């Protein structure tokens, strides 16, 4: 037993039950912070070490790359390095991307197929609408893409969609869908939804592949199952239908991706899909204080379509949840910055233990500026930011062109970037020629003389570029070399990326870029080389563990690297060890936890979002989103809103979120810096902060418990107590008509009666 002991150490009885469940379907249905993710990690280790199941038979699917990374790290602590690496811990998208690469020939795709991100998708969509001469005003590209995405999530391909289209709008979408898909196909590209869709058809249409994968992935585990969509359900189900060793964990109250096609029925009907299922409920929360948990519970009971779950905690009661009313977004950001600074200085809370959440990305700007001005280190969890930079997209586009000769979208991006004498008119002429001769655009690079519409200078430039691309492809093994020597040492990925940056002219271009005197873009390209190197080291290590070290070809490393880059997502940018405050959307916060959480913009129209107006279902999803935010907090929670907010340049009065009114008075404390916005600004920007602090101290003495006071808004009340906290000195007042409120003295404009 001794080997197993550490695997079960510190687990509760129901957690142990889930961890030691070996065969047959298992559902862990439990609220936030109850250890669902922990149970999956331990179960992986238990199956391998405790039961002796081969690690490569284990597949765990998490919601984000970051969660997968963390799970891998935890598993590595419980198993040997070799065992840990043999398990598969992935997201649905990364798993599918890998399977598609592996079985590309079955799907008629090049193994170096491109994965299109949102920007690439938009470009392909614009092209489709242009080709069909459809007016983008009536049929905006974004709504077309979202209709197509919905269809794909329901496993409807273009033909299937066309069949069921019954009105003019849908028939137009069907045409656009067909065209868009044809463009992707011509480019050897898949969008994110296609990754799932193609995997479903791979498993459906190739029984031998399915059999192989079932044999391989005998134990399937899925975290955050409440947010799986239909396609993901099909994949999970196909893999585990035979062995039935599927374990899902989730919480229906945290289902927040309905707008992206997630189907909450997957978890609600688990027992119907798997009648033999054992269901384990976890009821103890290890994350949050009693107060935070009570607030979360009080909120979520307002959702009608749910089954109530008991959740309790042994953790301390903790501080009340603070509802912070600010004058506007600037004061809100200032208040959060100052409170975080106070916690950091007075209570030794590390920056990395604090987070700010918001409903939509645009709310981060003012917060960022304020943190910057206050010299508070912060990071934004926007995983794609690095790869979104122009210079990085250029570099990646070059690598994609090397890997995937069909990828015209990326080829067009780089063909004259940096400028090499191939004008837009020349490109148009080549496109026309390719179309007329039914020839892939890429082939013209090797044979530009045939395009008689090009002048000889352009022909030369194209031929020269074509040669460079060809050399890259030969080096990378994408096209066969003439005197191929299989024993020759493989070039490194790092070296190859450096070659491409140099030979493409990108490096020189950014070195001489006058608009970037600090050479930041050049430094970013350097960072890309570093990331290629790190990826390569990891990749080789894994290959070595699997005993395949000798065989790793540059081509393989390049394709795997591009796949990883394409799958970076929002939550990936988070690294709390960096010692900085994390800013992220509520959606990205799923599964994470922080000792201190501030949610900003808790206003009607933002949270709940406007789109939930008049739609009770959407309103419930918004409430779940607020619930997810609240339940990330371990010790302290601030729910902030402004009385005014500037959106699209217009300052508008706001209404505090209805969710705030659903929180019971005994778990919240009202803080109202908005009563004196100027004092707050002065304090923040250094003007007169000191005098206000001493003023507050003086005031504290003026309002002894029991004193009768008057507030301009809340009327008459009696002081219950005063907590001296410097500039944040608070008084709890029992108002005759407005109930108990806690106010910051220096802003409260209280009068002693
Ligand atoms: P969410 O629904 O938010 O994803 P979860 O159910 O996955 O939450 P975990 O993240 O696994 O919860 O656990 C929450 C916290 O509680 C983690 O810090 C975890 O380490 C801790 N925890 C879980 N179980 C125990 C336990 N038995 N003893 C001590 N700590 C635990
Ligand atoms: Mg979890």
Automatic annotation (TrEMBL):
The keyword Isomerase applies. Belongs to the helicase family. UvrD subfamily. This is DNA 3'-5' helicase. Its EC number is 5.6.2.4. One of its GO terms (molecular function) is hydrolase activity. Keywords: ATP-binding, DNA-binding, Helicase, Hydrolase, Isomerase, Nucleotide-binding. Residues 9-289 form the UvrD-like helicase ATP-binding domain. Residues 290-591 form the UvrD-like helicase C-terminal domain. It comes from Algisphaera agarilytica. GO terms for biological process: recombinational repair; response to radiation. ATP binds at residues 30-37. Pfam families: UvrD-helicase (PF00580), UvrD_C (PF13361). CDD domains: DEXQc_UvrD, SF1_C_UvrD. It catalyses: ATP + H2O = ADP + phosphate + H(+); Couples ATP hydrolysis with the unwinding of duplex DNA by translocating in the 3'-5' direction. GO terms for cellular component: cytosol; DNA helicase complex.
């Amino acid at each position: 037993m001794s080997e197993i002991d550490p695997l079960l150490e510190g687990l509760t009885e129901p957690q142990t039950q889930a961890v030691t469940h070996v065969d047959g379907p298992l559902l862990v249905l439990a609220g936030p912070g109850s250890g669902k993710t922990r149970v999956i990690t331990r179960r992986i280790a238990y199956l391998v070490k405790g039961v002796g199941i081969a690690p490569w038979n284990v597949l765990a699917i998490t919601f984000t790359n970051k969660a997968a990374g963390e799970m891998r790290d935890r598993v590595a602590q419980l198993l040997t390095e070799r065992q840990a690496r043999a398990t598969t811990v992935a997201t649905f998208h990364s798993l599918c991307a890998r399977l598609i690469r592996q079985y590309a020939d079955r799907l008629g795709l090049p193994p170096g197929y491109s994965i299109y991100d949102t920007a690439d998708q938009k470009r392909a969509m614009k092209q489709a609408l242009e080709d069909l001469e459809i007016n983008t005003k009536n049929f905006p590209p974004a709504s077309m893409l979202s209709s197509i995405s919905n269809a794909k999530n329901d496993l409807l391909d273009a033909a299937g969609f066309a069949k069921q289209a019954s009105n003019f709008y849908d028939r137009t979408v069907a045409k656009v869908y067909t065209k868009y898909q044809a463009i992707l196909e011509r480019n050897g590209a898949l969008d994110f939804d296609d990754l799932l869709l193609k995997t479903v058809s791979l498993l459906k249409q190739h029984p031998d592949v399915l059999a192989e994968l079932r044999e391989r992935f005998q134990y399937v585990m899925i975290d955050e199952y409440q947010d799986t969509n239909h396609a993901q359900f099909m994949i999970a189900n196909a893999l585990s239908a035979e062995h039935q060793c599927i374990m899902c964990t989730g919480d229906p109250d945290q289902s927040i991706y309905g707008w992206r096609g997630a189907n909450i029925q997957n978890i609600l009907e688990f027992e119907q899909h798997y009648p033999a299922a054992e269901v384990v409920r976890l009821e103890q929360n290890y994350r949050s204080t009693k107060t935070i948990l009570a607030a979360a519970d009080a909120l979520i009971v307002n959702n009608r379509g749910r089954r109530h779950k008991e959740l309790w905690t042994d953790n301390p009661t903790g501080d009340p949840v603070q509802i912070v009313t600010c004058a506007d977004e600037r004061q809100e950001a200032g208040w959060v910055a100052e409170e975080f600074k106070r916690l950091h200085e007075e209570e030794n809370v590390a920056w990395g233990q604090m987070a700010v959440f918001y409903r939509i990305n645009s709310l981060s700007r003012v917060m960022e500026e304020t943190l910057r001005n206050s010299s508070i280190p912060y990071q934004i969890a926007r995983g794609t930011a690095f790869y979104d930079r122009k210079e990085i997209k250029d570099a990646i586009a070059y690598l994609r062109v090397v890997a995937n000769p069909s990828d015209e979208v990326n080829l067009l991006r780089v063909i004259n970037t940096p400028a090499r004498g191939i004008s837009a008119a020349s490109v148009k002429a080549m496109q026309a020629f390719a179309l007329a001769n039914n020839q892939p655009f890429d082939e013209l690079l090797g044979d530009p003389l045939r395009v008689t519409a090009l002048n000889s200078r352009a022909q030369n430039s194209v031929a020269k570029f074509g040669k460079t691309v060809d050399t890259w492809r030969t080096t990378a093994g994408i096209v066969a070399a003439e005197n191929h020597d299989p024993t020759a040492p493989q070039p490194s990925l790092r070296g190859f990326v450096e070659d491409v940056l140099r030979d493409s002219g990108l490096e020189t271009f950014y070195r001489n870029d006058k608009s970037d005197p600090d050479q930041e873009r050049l430094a970013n390209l350097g960072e890309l080389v570093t990331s290629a190197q790190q990826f390569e080291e990891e990749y080789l290590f894994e290959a070595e563990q699997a005993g395949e070290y000798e065989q790793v070809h540059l081509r393989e490393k390049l394709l795997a690297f591009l796949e990883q880059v394409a799958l970076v997502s929002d939550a990936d940018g988070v690294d709390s060890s960096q010692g900085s405050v994390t800013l992220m959307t509520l959606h990205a916060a799923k599964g994470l936890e922080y000792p201190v959480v501030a949610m900003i913009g808790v206003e009607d129209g933002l949270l709940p979002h406007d789109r939930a107006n008049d739609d009770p279902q959407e309103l419930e999803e918004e409430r779940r989103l607020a619930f997810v935010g609240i339940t990330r907090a371990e010790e302290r929670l601030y729910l902030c809103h402004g009385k005014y907010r500037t959106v699209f340049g217009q300052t508008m009065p706001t209404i505090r979120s209805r969710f705030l009114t659903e929180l019971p008075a005994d778990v919240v404390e009202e803080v109202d810096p908005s009563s004196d916005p100027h004092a707050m600004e002065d304090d923040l920007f250094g003007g007169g902060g000191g005098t206000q602090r001493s003023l507050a101290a003086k005031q504290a003495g003026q309002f002894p418990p029991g004193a009768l006071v008057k507030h301009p808004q809340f009327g008459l009340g009696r002081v219950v107590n005063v907590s001296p906290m410097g500039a944040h000195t608070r008084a709890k007042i029992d108002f005759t008509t407005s109930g108990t409120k806690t106010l910051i003295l220096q802003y409260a404009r209280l009068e002693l009666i």
